[in-house]
Specification:
Elements: E1 3-9, E2 15-16, H1 24-32, E3 38-44, H2 52-56, E4 59-66, H3 73-80, H4 84-87, E5 94-100, E6 105-113, H5 117-127, H6 131-138, E7 143-151, E8 154-162, H7 169-186, E9 192-198, H8 207-212, E10 227-232, E11 240-241, E12 248-249, E13 252-254, E14 260-264
Parallel strand pairs: 1-3, 8-9
Antiparallel strand pairs: 1-14, 2-13, 3-5, 4-5, 6-7, 7-8, 9-10, 11-14, 12-13
Length: 265
């Protein structure tokens, strides 16, 4: 059974350039309209986790990264309605989601914080991180979450990650390796393993991306850009990024990221 796996950073539902209103529902419906087996989403407002199953007809596994500033996802969403382009996630918080088609049977799920204080301190000492970068790195909590799936008698583990966006990409590199170790430990021996999401680092600047494609780790080769779908233990097509035309709605360009997808055999 061939499985289409897609990832998309939704930019909090904003278009490019950002506008007063949001297009989050349109984006989620677009990303799920052709029935992917699995859809990994990043930069969702926390309030939307209660909506995406209705929008897609898929089964949701969500993970809250940054909690709503005022403690209420609904209140944060109401305030953000004043101007989505300006406020983004300031009040709504931020979440990730893995959405599964009905042909896949989830059997377990788990998550990990990518940048907890102890990890940041140890990594900062190790690489001699500037205090300003340390401060930026601590501003927003980031997570990786994973679901183990029975896909017609063959098991598949999908991990969805959204690494930090800070000036020194060695921080992202450390988070990405932490995500890969977590996903590898969560998967059972023999599982096909997918590591997808917005890595916030690129091939030329990432030792971790190079490591993951090595024989030691065995993942597929990354493509240019921040967004990836890496596969281990199965044949997969080379990931492709949607054209800008494919993610336009009424002339608007949706999100500052394009969806990336691969088909796993």
């Amino acid at each position: 059974m061939a499985l289409l796996v897609r990832t998309w950073n939704l930019f909090h539902g904003n278009a490019v350039p950002p506008e007063r209103r949001d297009f989050l529902e349109d984006m989620v419906r677009l990303a799920s309209s052709d029935g992917p087996a699995a859809l990994c989403l990043q930069e969702l407002p926390v309030w939307s986790l209660s909506k995406v199953e209705d929008w897609t007809g898929m089964r949701l596994f969500g993970a809250v990264a940054a909690r709503p500033l005022l403690g209420s996802a609904r209140l944060g969403g109401a305030i953000t309605e004043l101007h989505h382009g300006l406020l983004r996630s300031a009040f709504t918080g931020q979440a990730n989601a893995i959405l599964l088609g009905h042909e896949l049977r989830p059997v377990a799920s788990d998550s990990i914080v990518l940048n907890p204080p102890g990890f940041r301190r140890a990594r900062a000492r190790e690489i001699g991180l500037d205090w300003r970068v340390r401060f930026a790195w601590a501003k927003e909590r980031r997570v990786c979450h994973a679901v183990r799936i029975d896909a017609g008698g063959r098991f598949l583990t999908i991990a969805n990650t959204h690494c930090s966006n800070v000036p020194d990409r060695r921080c992202q590199d450390g988070e990405l390796l932490r995500a890969a170790v977590f996903a590898d430990a969560f998967a059972e021996p023999g599982d096909r393993l997918v590591l997808a999401g917005d890595f916030n680092t690129v091939i030329a600047e990432s030792k971790t991306l190079e490591q993951l494609a090595s024989p030691e780790w065995g993942f597929s080769e990354p493509i240019p850009g921040l967004d990836q779908v890496l596969v281990r233990g199965a044949k997969a097509s080379r990931p492709e990024r949607w054209s800008e035309e494919r993610r336009r709605l009424g002339g608007r360009l949706l999100s500052d990221h394009g969806p990336v997808e691969t088909t796993i055999e």
